[in-house]
Amino acid sequence: MARTSGINQDKILEVAEAIIAAKGAKDTSLKDIAKAVGISKGTLYYHYSTKEALVYDITARHFDQVIRRMVRLTGKVGQKVGQEEILTLLLEDLGAQQQISRLHLYLLHEVMSGNEDLLARYTDRYREWQDTMRSFLSGLFGEEHPAHAAASAILMTFIEGNTVRGTVFEESAPYREMALCITRLYG
């Protein structure tokens, strides 16, 4: 990662995430973030020329953390932890990420509003996440199974749809029941 004035991208992302959590993505400007980090707007622009690029990196960093947790969960298969329990843990973990899910929806809104640069980055990353989800399911249920494509699509849709459920209805999803449904696909 590039360094400028002793500030690195991780620091910028941490501060930006805190500000966006407090104010919302729409009401947060790059100027707000630069001020909170203690750098000039020019220094921030060196790392991030748009708010969307910054939000993209925040959400990508969190999804990467989720992927690392998925890999650890896959390692628990056969250690007295069943497939349904592992899926439940994953869904609960994803469901607990409400702020990141809101940022994810903000990015989707920008993509659907015609931001072509973000669309290209997002499309590539989304495919990567879905492939990782398929790999997770392969580790959980075995390499070759026809349900991998459908189950990974269900899990990716959960990531997007759970935000609406948690924000609008202020309720959590029935994680265990969802995990059971996915497990039954492998029946």
Looking at CATH, the homologous superfamily of the largest domain is Tetracycline Repressor, domain 2
Work out the helicity level.
over 70%
**What spatial order of strands do you see in the largest sheet?**
1-2
CATH topology of the largest domain, what is it called? Tetracycline Repressor, domain 2
Mean pLDDT: 83
Rounded to an integer in angstroms, the radius of gyration calculated over CA atoms is 18 Å
Q: Class of the largest domain, according to the CATH hierarchy?
A: Mainly Alpha
How many E strands? Answer: 2
Beta-strand portion reads under 5%
| Shape-level CATH architecture of the largest domain | Orthogonal Bundle
Global structural class = mainly alpha
Low-confidence blocks of residues: 1-5
Structural overview:
- The chain is an all-alpha fold and about 190 residues long.
- It has 2 domains: about 1-50, Arc Repressor Mutant, subunit A; about 50-185, Orthogonal Bundle (Tetracycline Repressor, domain 2).
- The protein is built from 9 helices and 2 strands.
- The protein has helices at about 10-25, 30-35, 40-45, 50-75, 85-95, 100-110, 115-140, 150-170, 175-185, and strands at about 5, 5-10.
- It has a two-stranded antiparallel sheet.
- A hairpin with a 2-residue loop joins β1 and β2.
- The model is unreliable at about 1-5 (pLDDT under 50).
Map the helices and strands.
Blueprint: E1 3-4, E2 7-8, H1 9-23, H2 30-37, H3 41-47, H4 51-74, H5 83-95, H6 98-112, H7 116-141, H8 148-168, H9 175-185
Helix pairs in contact: 1-2, 1-4, 2-3, 4-5, 4-6, 4-7, 5-9, 6-7, 6-8, 7-8
